[in-house]
Amino acid sequence: MSLARHIFIVGASIALLALSLTAALAQIVVVGGKNFTEQLLMAEMTTQLLTSNGFQVERRTGYDTTRVRQAQEAGVVDLYWEYTGTSLREFNKVTEQLSPAETYARVKRLDAEKGLVWLKPSRINNSYALAMRRADAAERGIATISDLAAKVLQGQRVIFASNSEFYERSDGLRPLEQAYGFHFGGPDRVVRLDTDRVYQVLRDVRFIDVGLVFATDGRIPAYDLLVLKDDKEFVPHYGMAPVVRQQTLERQPDLAMHLERLCDILDDEVMAGLNRRVDVDSVRIPKVASDFLRSHGLI
Question: Alpha-carbon Rg of the chain, whole angstroms?
Answer without folding.
Answer: 23
